[in-house]
Amino acid sequence: MAFPSSLHTSPPPHPPGGNMSHWPERNWTNPKEFVILGFSGWPQGLQVLLFALLLPLYLATLAGNLLILGLAVMDSALHTPMYFFLGSLSAVEVAYTLVLTPRMLAGFLLPPGGQAVAASTCAAQMGLFVALGGSECLLLAAMALDRYLAICWPLYYPQLMTSGLCWCLLASCCVGGSILALSLTTAIFQLPFCHGGLVNHVFCDLPAVLVLACGNRDLQEHVLLAACLLLLVLPLVLILLSYTRVLLVILGLGGAEGRQKAFNTVASHLTVAVLHYGCATAMYARPLHSRSLEEDKLISLIYINLTPLLYPAIYTLRNRDMQGALQRVAGQSTPGSVHQADLT
């Protein structure tokens, strides 16, 4: 459904001194639908070009993560905790991209005015995005914990990282992300809205919807910032500490070739972590009054389209065990062994 281009404007800003709306209460509403503006104000030719560039990235991301998930399930040599978490991460990435990317790509081909979505659909998309993104943040920390135990406590690793513990950690990551998603989404959609429901973003993102709310939204903004601290800053600190310790242990045990491999491996994993947490922190760990929704939309193109592509690129193309599993599944070699000390 298209809307006239006259609606294609950003909502009026709130007063800089606080989060109370200056709109009178008689204009506060609970809209039955929201309009996702996306990039509908850009020239049509540029939108088509973006669609042509981003569609192959989306298909490659989907295929790469499905490949990792399939190999982790099908190849018995990959039935280890490391690849259990990697397969789980790929499954989350597949769901994550399915929730966001198809609707974003469709927006490039629609007439000017944006996409109208029901309020329930907007809330569901927001909730799924937060749940999957939160689970992914926690899974990355669980993967760092697994590598820390495998490298720093190799004698105790089989007793510590059991199948039951792996499933418990996965369930904890998913439950934690889901609880956070339900809390944030409920808190935001309990507020009244007074700016016509025009979401200046490519999907129903939390800040882009929260900025439309009327009344006092201090509580919701504080909860959002607290969630960023819990899901972004704390896991990133734990990951950095874990891989620092892993790197020190491997450098002290291996030769020149082993040290180079360890450095490349840790650098790859940290690149994924820094990009993932860096983009997310830049998006969400800021107060509403200091935001530019236009800049947020541009950043979203990175964490929706480019960051998910890193996982299959790093964990498959540069992964000796994954390459061997792919050859075995394709019938080109016989099963081999997976070395726990191989981080990649």
Explain this structure.
The chain is mostly helical. The chain is 67% helix and 3% strand. It contains ten helices and three strands. A three-stranded mixed β-sheet has the order 2-1-3. The termini are far apart. The relative contact order is 0.15. Residues 1-27 and 337-344 have low confidence and may be disordered.
The span between the termini is 46 Å
Radius of gyration: 22 Å
Most strands sheet:
3 strands, mixed
SSE-based structural type: mainly alpha
Query: What spatial form do the alpha-carbon principal axes imply?
Result: globular
Strand portion: under 5%
The total of beta strands comes to: 3
pLDDT < 50 runs, ≥5 residues: 1-27, 337-344
Overall pLDDT level: 79
Strands across the major sheet, in which order?
2-1-3
- Determine the fraction of residues in helical runs and give it as a percent range: 55-70%
Number of helices: 10
The run of helices and strands is EHHEHHHEHHHHH
Features:
344 residues; mainly alpha; three-stranded mixed beta sheet; 10 helices; 3 strands; disordered N terminus
Draw up the topology in text.
Blueprint: E1 33-36, H1 44-74, H2 81-109, E2 115-118, H3 119-152, H4 157-160, H5 163-189, E3 198-199, H6 206-210, H7 218-253, H8 256-284, H9 293-317, H10 320-329
Parallel strand pairs: 1-3
Antiparallel strand pairs: 1-2
Helix pairs in contact: 1-2, 1-9, 1-10, 2-3, 2-9, 3-5, 3-7, 5-7, 7-8, 8-9
